[in-house]
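Replying to the earlier thread about multi-chain prediction with a worked example.

Input:
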Amino acid sequence: MKEKESFDAWAKAWRVRFEEAAERALPLKDGPLAGLQEAMRYAVLDGGKRVRALFAYAAGEVTGADASHTDKAALAVEFVHAYSLVHDDLPCMDNDLLRRGKPTCHVKYGVAQAMLAGDALQPEAFKQLVSPELGAQTSVALVAELTLASGADGMCGGQMIDLQHVGQTMDIDLLRMMHAMKTGALIRSAVRMGAMCGDPRVFASVDADLTVYADRMGLAFQIVDDILDVTADTATLGKTAGKDEATCKPTYVSILGLDKARELAKRCLDEALEALERIEASGVCASGATRALAWMADYVIGRNY
Amino acid sequence: MKEKESFDAWAKAWRVRFEEAAERALPLKDGPLAGLQEAMRYAVLDGGKRVRALFAYAAGEVTGADASHTDKAALAVEFVHAYSLVHDDLPCMDNDLLRRGKPTCHVKYGVAQAMLAGDALQPEAFKQLVSPELGAQTSVALVAELTLASGADGMCGGQMIDLQHVGQTMDIDLLRMMHAMKTGALIRSAVRMGAMCGDPRVFASVDADLTVYADRMGLAFQIVDDILDVTADTATLGKTAGKDEATCKPTYVSILGLDKARELAKRCLDEALEALERIEASGVCASGATRALAWMADYVIGRNY
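Result:
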């Protein structure tokens, strides 16, 4: 219980910090560009659990990153995530009307403006990563990481597999591949990019275990998403519940069943925590530096929306 | 006439080189990602005048850039250009069916896949710029340049102004602002990024004049585009001619008239060539190093498709 309370306080503080950073990165504009900026702000601000930002901040603690640096990684991954939601919700894709408890971006601003807002969030994400205070070496590593996570071999590739299989069956291997790319790649990047903002020698030492942790988190996140789609209601989720089944989308629940899906999520949690224990045992970072990542693991598995 | 022949040979050689580099950067794939890659290749390969790539290569000559480095800049700007065309052609935007003499990407692959292919080309562009051989400092400068050119204060912002004014009047100042962002920003980047791939001290010395040159080229390019829309036919253009007038789009021709538009294009050419003369006169680069940029200026103003 004590642990839970500490996580809540930790997450709240970082969420507040993130919202302020996002507000600064996407200021209101006057003139002919006001509409685009407004749609970008609508897509990003005041919504979401900020899971990816929190992963970045938590991983930054492992390598002793300066929070003003981790902000940049957090903004970049959340901007990419936000653009992907805007495009994913469009009529040509999922045609979703509700997101984070609000009308989706294209419902509010029209399809063309929503698409453009999503398009413009991509360079905005990369722009964060070339902030001078990060140093050129770190910037280059961050940009490289984000291009892989968000491109054809990452998020967009996963979207493509998804698109091609709506209403079709999919075996568990393809489902895992799809999610590893569609949501897993960006979660992995959030963790790795947060850690890259700190001491590069520490990052090099923990990279392998951190990546195991991140991959398990990506998988678990999706499994829990699939479970919630059948067990939670629309008001709690802030997006349309029961949609996967209604659209015959292959999910962990539809392929494995609810019990086996829960088992798999639990196994991911265990393996993620073991990876963190190896990092702690290595003594390369300060004792307890993986605390927030362990909280995040419990949070991702235990969340109900 | 001699000059023209030399330009043709120069442009042909660089276009061939560019196509090979693009082919390597977007290899065919097997498996579930084949479709996405195919749509990305369709959007990029085997089409287009490669004006932006040629600008990058030409500017690279000024700063003595290694061609294998300038390739990266050329690929990045052409990938961004290609994605913008794919999204711009979508039904929610211009709803165009013909591009580079071929069916547009969404006609060929469907709207969802075309949008995704466009989305995936953005990280692919930035990926080029963090190639290790460029060096971290150059990479960071290139990424920063491209984020500005392609984002909300550049290309996407220009698209937004365009979108908001279809069928409406626009004064010449807003028209210039729109085009400076929509097409000018990426052309400016093509020139600057090509030059950034060479000697950084030479780049610093020529940057101001090079930017004047690039801005005049961006403006002239759009004016000529508007002129061709009313004077050329669809077969020559490879895209639907007369479309601006049919859709009541404000253009340099509709606002200034054909003669004044031609005059303005000529003035851009003169000012661009003067900027190149200042670079030559400064002696900071090898004599004749601006030759290809001068050719490009003549080409942009004199093109008939």
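The mean pLDDT of chain B is 93.

Feel free to reuse this layout for your own posts.
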